[in-house]
């Protein structure tokens, strides 16, 4: 059992769920596709990024008020 499988099985066991080999393979595929980007996002320093307030998903994002026109 590799670290990924140990992590997934351990987490699901705590939640009272079982995991078969097919589900494990699907999780490995999803991790291979999305894992590097999620890791990069988690490690990114976003302290200097402008936080948009009053987000409305039906509208385009508001321009950064600090940007020069």
How is this structure best described in words?
By secondary structure, the chain is mostly helical. The protein has a domain at 3-39. Helices cover 51% and strands 0% of the residues. The protein has 2 helices and no strands. The radius of gyration is 19 Å and the shape is elongated.
The quaternary state of the protein chains shown equals single chain
Mind summarizing the main beta sheet?
none
Secondary-structure element string: HH
Flag low-confidence runs: none
Beta-strand proportion: under 5%
What is the CA-CA span between the terminal residues? 56 Å
- The number of strands is 0
Task: Give the topology.
Blueprint: H1 3-14, H2 21-43
Short note summarizing the structure:
This protein is mainly α and 69 residues long.
